[in-house]
Design a protein that fits this description.
single chain, alpha/beta, Alpha-Beta Plaits, 7-stranded parallel sheet, 5-stranded mixed sheet, 16 helices
């Protein structure tokens, strides 16, 4: 699937990243019987199909309870690395014992740990990593949109992410934001408490480059989809890529409050949690619906939790927003060789059984910006020359579609979110299979959407009440906040500000158009948070060298925030 690079020194960390991107929350798939290793079609854990047919010693990564490590020894294997990042560990084990391990209570996934091919380019491709194929603009009609003058001009795209570093390709693209009532300004609105608009993690800058980078450092070769658009950086996560649901909701309220001030017409949410609360109760889904109803076309990544059913995360499970899955264009404009990546999430949604994703876009091998000094850039040095790199994930498919929407709205500024969604789905191309739970309406064609027949999406859908649990929206993890009183694990109906969650004052009233500066969100310190995996709380993982580092965490870090990096 990718160009191969030497990864001996990064083997466990990159493999852990891949497991996070490919295997979390996967429903147990059928595995063909194989006499060589004893795999059967009725295993209780999700097992990597590439383990079928091997013999001798298998190198695996296991997601599961730490207590299952004893089973490894009983089966004649050995745990080689503890990997809290994936909620598990790496190990060697006799291949013939994999089936027994898969039946062990507490084991969720077993993936082959091998030399990872972390560059997102197809198998057999001979292109230099310095000059990779980058055809997604042709595949999605972005090149034709720009030729027609629809390049995103007059549109601001809010990117709710880890920040966007100011670089040659984003210079002049970033909106200067008033950050307080007395008029101080910055190139972002910051909810992390880290005091800088610079992207310390590296995800948001990559997203921003795909949406609206101008390609200045490459002579225009690696420009984004909407180089005429503006970028408004809404920073909700810092150097460890962490955020809390309450922080995201507060950021959404800010976007809605200031949408007219900054001409915000598109919102990119390449993030998610594994919470399975019904969208009709979810506070997070309620908040994204408010953005949608405020006239902001909101796009959300489906997640990298595939290939099992019901792996679309939250708030991508909301029926109103545009949920984007990924395709692999295999480096060609020809659609006949396109596939759906293993990791791209599939519907139906877990709680409500809704068909998702809505559409797909290329999400493998895309070229965008590597933020200087960011965690991803330092820990996973790009194969390409600065300032670019390749990556893969539904986060980036979503950025592509956000750019297309900006292009469309520059040509049709009067189109509502429901009109845009209808146009994209109505004109999508048949591609990479016909399973609507994997590809939705199909591959997006932004140019065709310009002249889509009249119609509106989302008619007759019941909206969210937002009256459910904040904790349920967090899914399998909580956050640890570090304030003046020390570190506190946030649990239950409490915000990341360590204040009680109150639907009436924090959602119902504030989302009805009141001033941000007069709300309960403003004026209370937003602590910089780090994800804290609740399943490890109280165990010997707590206090280890992993704790507090950028590798610690679960369903936010390593899934929708993350992906493959090269």
């Amino acid at each position: 699937m990718t160009l191969t690079v030497s990864t001996s020194r990064l083997r466990s960390t990159i493999a852990a990243m891949a497991v996070a991107a490919l295997s979390w929350a996967v429903a147990a798939p059928a595995v063909a019987p194989d006499a060589g290793n004893g795999l059967t079609s009725a295993v209780s854990a999700a097992v990597d199909p590439t383990l079928s047919g091997i013999s001798g010693t298998a190198h695996v990564l296991v997601q599961g309870a730490r207590a299952t490590e004893s089973t490894i020894a009983e089966l004649g294997g050995k745990v080689t690395h503890d990997l809290p990042l994936i909620g598990g560990y790496s190990a060697t084990i006799p291949a013939a014992k994999i089936s027994q391990l898969a039946h062990t209570p507490g084991v969720k996934t077993i993936v082959r740990d091998t030399h990872m091919t972390v560059q997102a380019a197809p198998v057999g491709m001979t292109a230099s990593p310095q000059n990779p194929p980058n055809v997604y603009q042709q595949v999605t009609g972005a090149d034709r949109l720009q030729s027609a003058g629809a390049d995103g001009h007059g549109v601001t795209v809010a990117v709710l992410d880890t920040g966007i570093s100011s670089m040659a390709d984003t210079s002049g693209r970033l909106v200067s934001v008033q950050t307080d009532p007395v008029g101080h300004r910055a190139n972002c609105v910051n909810f992390t408490g880290d005091g800088t608009c610079t992207d310390l993690f590296g995800h948001g800058t990559y997203i921003g480059g795909l949406v609206a980078g101008n390609g200045a450092a490459s002579g225009g070769k690696y420009a984004g989809v909407a180089p005429g658009a503006k970028l408004l950086s809404v920073k909700v996560a810092g150097a460890d890529g962490s955020a809390d649901v309450s922080t995201v909701i507060a950021a959404l309220q800010w976007v809605i409050t200031f949408k007219n001030t900054y001409n915000i017409k598109v919102l990119n949410l390449s993030l998610g949690t594994d919470g399975t609360q019904s969208y009709q109760l979810s506070p997070l889904d309620y908040a994204v619906e408010k953005a949608w109803n405020a006239g902001i076309t909101t796009l959300v990544s489906a997640s990298n939790l595939g290939p099992g059913a019901s792996t679309v995360d939250k708030p991508a499970d909301d029926p109103f927003v545009i949920t984007v899955g990924a395709t692999d264009d295999n480096g060609t404009v020809d659609l006949s060789d396109d596939t759906v990546p293993f990791w791209s999430a599939r519907g139906p949604t877990a709680a409500d059984g809704l068909a998702k994703p809505d559409i797909t876009a290329p999400g493998v091998g895309l070229v965008s910006l590597a933020a200087p000094g960011a965690s991803l850039t330092v820990n996973h040095p790009p194969a390409m020359a600065a300032p670019y790199r390749q990556a893969a994930g539904t986060s980036f498919s979503t950025a592509v579609v956000s750019g297309l929407v900006a292009d469309i709205l520059s040509a049709h500024p009067d189109w509502s979110p429901n009109r845009v969604k209808f146009a994209l789905m109505n004109t999508a191309q048949s591609d990479a299979g016909d399973d609507p739970m994997a590809v939705g309406a199909g591959l997006v064609d932004g140019y065709a959407a310009l002249s889509a027949p009249a119609g509106l999406a989302n008619q007759g859908i019941t909206p969210s009440t937002g009256l459910g649990s904040l904790q349920a929206d967090r899914g399998s993890v909580n956050v640890q906040v570090n304030g003046a009183g020390g570190a506190t694990v946030v649990n239950g109906e409490v915000t990341a500000q360590l204040t009680p969650w109150n639907f009436l004052t924090m959602l119902a009233a504030n989302f009805n158009g009141t001033s941000w500066y007069g709300t309960s969100w403003y004026g209370t310190s937003w602590y910089g948070t780090s994800w804290y995996g609740t399943s490890w709380y109280g165990t010997s993982w707590y206090g280890t060298s992993w704790y507090g580092t950028s590798w610690y965490g679960t369903s936010w870090y390593g899934t929708s925030w993350y992906g493959y990096w090269a």
